[in-house]
């Protein structure tokens, strides 16, 4: 899941001219025509679904640092090679190793009830025998922030704000803050543990949504878990009786050391400018309860399949298409940050980029953060994507996605291809993130969009404005 | 969940006359008017939702024979008393005690995958360390029936038929047969274990549907469990690779003895004929993963609330309204059978009855198995229920529900009030059987129907034909 990019560019940067001036970047007519063919071919191409089926079936869940992490990297290397990529390699990424062994919980009093919950990333475990404490409840993160620590000390904090479904998934702003910042705030106020209503829009599923907390060191960690929505309802009903409510948490999880994984990279080598790259991708890791189909097997499949269509053209594109399967996005963009640190000095060589990490729903909107001289070329891309139902919003910046956002922060020109996320947060970070949630036609529409824009960028006469620190003004800060 | 009554009555029994003859049972005008008032009042009455909230919150899951079984009975006695019922008592029911301690499973090869599954009722546990065996797959129960035992011996049988949503829930015929008969057939053919695609219509939920098997003694039992629909998809995908697929089941469950629970009964005592009863109810036990809101807290709540509305009238009805909260329906109608055995000789005193056990969706159809002389009275009831959206189908028999079906089999005249079960099998026998699935307005519509017909039956001039063995011809056999 990527971070929303909320800052709007100054309108002056975004006003595009209808006709290109001599200084403008332009996509040649032949490239536009080929991109249209790629787009149309992609809609009938099953490669992405085949890749996604392979990943979710043959590897399945791939929690960063787990046994499946290595299996996923082996799978990615083999898949890139099988698809015919010209160059396949890995680059290491090191991060704290967090493991989940067991998790359970229950309301102890006034009425015993089993709780469906899941431990959150970087949560420490509870003491042997579990943690039993009274619950203190808040209906929002703001209420927790405002609370007197004396009311919290030694208790299990519960925060119960709800998320609603939206096409752009913006209520994840509520849910992710409750999950990332909430445990840290509770810990600082002396809480013994932390529970939240799952950051999910599935109001009626007895399935909890995991995800990372903001704990940055073991010292500040307290046991933290998410309740399924119906279990949060049940807890709130018990709280409604006006008697003390006691919960027992039994979590066996925590940081057990450090792990070195890797980003896995496949390239279609550029014919004219092999050192100039158009960057796409997704993240290879997933949370463990599901099989990581929508988060983010889809992004891996979309980008591999888009590059494969370009690979299958009669000749290589002018520039290199680089597909990056990032390591450990879920617990803090570790692969992305390692990548951006390693390649910061080459940022001008990254012509344009974005990864895909909001599921497998149709792309409905494209935004860009590029130099003014590249706006005409972006409009050319938008024209090719328009028949796919993709609107171009010239007033919004492109963030580059969750992982390539780190390169955008270094100065890479970036797109955002917004996917329809209406149901994404029903399944996100849960056991329900499985292949059956993916509509092959919608997945193919994504591939069509990625194949078309990637190819057009690779063939552009001119660049998109990538340079060190070029996009700091649109909020793309490190 | 009740058994569908599929046998149609001979049409000749069902043709009702528009006008009552002298020998016909008739509901007096005053009773019709009061029933209409009860119906309308019920639509704005929150008692059923309050009762259901209390049961699911204060007791929660109540697997027959578990600690919660006693708590549920205590709850029912207290609730009947609090609602002002004139008489509250229990009658024992004894049954095998089956317990569930732990369940897990995984595909071991060719690609390791965790499986979301749940053990089935009366399943024995696996040996210590689990049962690991190759899977042999069938796409229907018929295919399993036709299979050569040599292909099954020592393997884990998997049956993968799917259920679709229907208003009358008729695909449960597929699912329940696969769950009840399937394990027995597999066991007889020498299988080491049994797996089915959950008998549920939630094609995309990583939640398994439990339920009873047809094992009647420990000797024939083999470990048996249900996979969630997406896990069944995953297993089928692995089978599709054409390599041997091995599964490990680890079930700690089984029959550990015998238990004596009880049916809990509350009565509004009849003013004129206290010994003549109109019988309604539901079952108090539930499966353990959910909180038994739709199965069958709803039936308990509907029948308690309907009787309570009659209780609140200025004077008691002519006959007794008996609400029966049956014991252990889920593992074989144990409470119902104990009840019918005990009361078989009094069957003529049971004027008319049915319990509610298909969730909390709106009643959309009423059917009856009554004497021809009572058809006019049934039409009078149908007229009062019509504004609720309840159609009267004179060609279908009334089965009396899952539990009171046992009294119908003894000769009790019976109704069936069919509920809209479109989504019932999404949640049935799963952790998702929770209060949030119940629409208070739809629940109240059920109460309106039950209050109206129950009162009308209690005030009828004449009977409905109850007599020993009276309805054997409509399939109501013991």
List keywords for this structure.
disordered N terminus, 33% helix, metalloprotease (chains A, B), homodimer, Aminopeptidase, 2 domains, eleven-stranded mixed β-sheet, glycoprotein (chains A, B), lysosome (chains A, B), three-stranded mixed β-sheet, Glucose Oxidase, domain 1, carboxypeptidase (chains A, B)
Question: Could you describe the 3D structure shown?
Answer:
- The structure is a homodimer of 478-residue chains.
- With 478 residues, the first copy, chain A, is α/β, with parallel strands linked by helices.
- Chain A is built from 13 helices and 14 strands.
- At the A-B interface, helix 3 and helix 7 of A face helix 3 and helix 7 of B.
Give the helix/strand layout.
Two copies of one chain form a homodimer.
Chain A: H1 11-14, H2 29-43, H3 47-59, H4 67-82, E1 87-109, E2 113-115, E3 117-119, E4 131-138, H5 141-146, E5 156-159, H6 172-188, E6 193-197, E7 224-227, H7 229-239, E8 246-268, E9 273-283, H8 293-311, E10 319-326, H9 334-343, E11 350-353, E12 363-369, H10 375-385, E13 391-392, H11 401-410, E14 414-419, H12 424-427, H13 440-459
Parallel strand pairs in A: 4-5, 5-6, 6-7, 9-10, 9-11, 12-13
Antiparallel strand pairs in A: 1-2, 1-8, 3-7, 4-8, 8-10, 12-14
């Amino acid at each position: 899941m990527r971070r929303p990019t909320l800052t709007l560019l100054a309108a002056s940067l975004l006003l595009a001219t209808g006709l290109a001036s001599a200084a403008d970047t332009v996509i040649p007519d032949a490239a536009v025509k080929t991109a249209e063919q790629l787009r149309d071919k992609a809609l009938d191409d099953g490669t992405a679904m085949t890749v996604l089926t392979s990943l979710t079936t043959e590897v399945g869940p791939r929690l960063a640092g787990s046994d499946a992490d290595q299996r996923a990297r082996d799978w990615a290397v083999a898949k890139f090679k099988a698809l015919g990529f010209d160059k396949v390699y890995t680059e290491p990424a090191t991060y704290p190793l967090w493991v989940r062994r067991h998790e359970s919980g229950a309301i102890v009093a006034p009425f015993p009830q089993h709780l469906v919950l899941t431990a959150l990333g970087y949560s420490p475990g509870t003491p042997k025998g579990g943690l039993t404490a009274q619950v203190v409840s808040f209906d929002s993160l703001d209420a927790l922030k405002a609370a007197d620590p004396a009311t919290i000390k030694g208790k299990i904090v519960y925060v119960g704000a709800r998320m609603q479904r939206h096409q752009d998934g913006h209520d994840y702003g509520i849910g992710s803050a409750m999950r990332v910042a909430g445990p840290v705030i509770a810990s600082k106020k002396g809480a013994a543990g932390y529970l939240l209503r799952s950051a999910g829009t599935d109001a009626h599923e007895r399935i909890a949504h995991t995800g990372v907390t903001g704990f940055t060191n073991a010292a500040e960690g307290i046991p933290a878990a998410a309740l399924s929505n119906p279990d949060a309802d049940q807890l709130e009903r018990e709280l409604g009786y006006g008697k003390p409510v006691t919960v027992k948490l039994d979590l066996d999880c925590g940081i057990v050391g450090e792990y070195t994984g890797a980003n896995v990279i496949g390239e279609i080598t550029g014919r004219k400018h092999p050192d100039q790259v158009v960057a796409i991708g997704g993240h290879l890791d997933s949370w463990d309860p599901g099989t990581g189909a929508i988060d983010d097997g889809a992004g891996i499949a979309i980008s591999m399949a888009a590059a494969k269509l370009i690979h299958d053209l009669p000749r290589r594109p002018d520039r290199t298409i680089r597909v990056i399967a990032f390591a450990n996005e879920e617990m803090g963009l570790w692969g992305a940050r390692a990548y951006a640190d390693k390649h910061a000095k080459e940022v001008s060589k990254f012509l344009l980029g974005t990864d895909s990490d909001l599921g497998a729903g149709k792309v409905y909107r494209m935004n860009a953060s590029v130099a003014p001289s590249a706006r005409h070329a972006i409009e050319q891309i938008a024209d090719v994507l328009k028949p796919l139902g993709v609107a171009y919003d010239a007033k919004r910046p492109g963030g580059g996605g969750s992982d390539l956002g780190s390169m955008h922060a270094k100065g890479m020109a970036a797109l955002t291809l917004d996917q329809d996320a209406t149901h994404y947060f029903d399944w996100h970070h849960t056991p329900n993130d499985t292949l059956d949630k993916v509509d092959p036609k919608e997945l193919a529409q994504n591939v069509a969009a990625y194949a078309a824009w990637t190819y057009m960028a690779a063939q552009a006469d001119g660049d998109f404005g990538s340079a060190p620190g070029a996009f700091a003004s649109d909020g793309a800060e490190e």
